[in-house]
Specification:
218 residues, Arc Repressor Mutant, subunit A, 2 domains, 11 helices, 0% strand
Length: 218
């Protein structure tokens, strides 16, 4: 069997930094701690990244490459409620893999201007995706909301997706990674987002929503 080539030091730094940021929170991890975890000298780490902000920027690049296709996908078709459920799961999975961004969001944006500008654009695109989803459901007759209600719905959907992990962390502050069951946490997040639509769903949509909730939240 052919052995895989060892990962380059830069890749190892990013992988270890992501794990430590997710576990401990980005503000609580120093470059010295990262180097120690990797058993490399601080000078070796600084050869690849001059400071922690450069590591954060590189990880945010990875996160954006993963989330960009998801933010584009609702705009290219006519999603239905089942599609929205799957879409939200995929979105929350991407958020979970880079959860340090969301858990430490306010602190991170206050310190890193580049991340601030890029995350603002992600929020704008999340809002467009939520608007596209709601309008598609209206066109298909599955959602009885007005234009003004859709604007409010889209904003609330973005708020929940953006701050769900912070809410989960408040509920389980002493548990590893904001809870023992990340899959269940993400399912609850998807449910909470879709539940915002429930008052405007027709009978068929409500039955489907109840079925999805029963299947994935049991």
């Amino acid at each position: 069997m052919t052995r895989k080539p060892p990962r380059r030091t830069r890749e190892r730094i990013l992988a270890t930094s992501l794990r430590l940021f997710n576990e401990r929170g980005e503000p609580n991890v120093t470059t010295t701690a990262i180097a120690g975890e990797l058993e490399i000298s601080p000078g070796n780490l600084y050869y690849h990244f001059r400071n922690k902000d450069e590591i954060v920027d590189a990880l945010f690049d990875e996160f954006q490459r993963e989330i960009d296709p998801l933010l584009d996908s609702p705009l290219g078709g006519e999603p239905q409620l089942e599609d929205a459920w799957l879409y939200l799961h995929l979105l929350f999975e991407a958020i979970w893999r880079y959860r340090f961004v969301y858990r430490d969001l306010n602190d991170l944006l206050a310190r890193n201007r580049r991340v601030e500008m890029r995350f603002r654009r992600i929020v704008e695109r999340k809002t467009l995706a939520a608007l596209a989803l709601c309008r598609s459901l209206v066109r298909r007759g599955g959602l009885g909301a007005t234009d003004e209600q859709i604007e409010s719905l889209a904003t609330n959907m973005v708020v929940v997706t953006t701050y769900w992990l912070s809410f989960e962390f408040v509920r389980h502050p002493r548990s590893p990674a904001a809870g023992e069951r990340p899959a269940a946490s993400m399912a609850r997040g998807a449910y909470q987002v879709l539940s915002l639509l429930a008052p405007w769903l027709g009978n068929d949509g409500r039955r489907l929503f109840g079925k999805l909730a029963h299947e994935y939240l049991r």
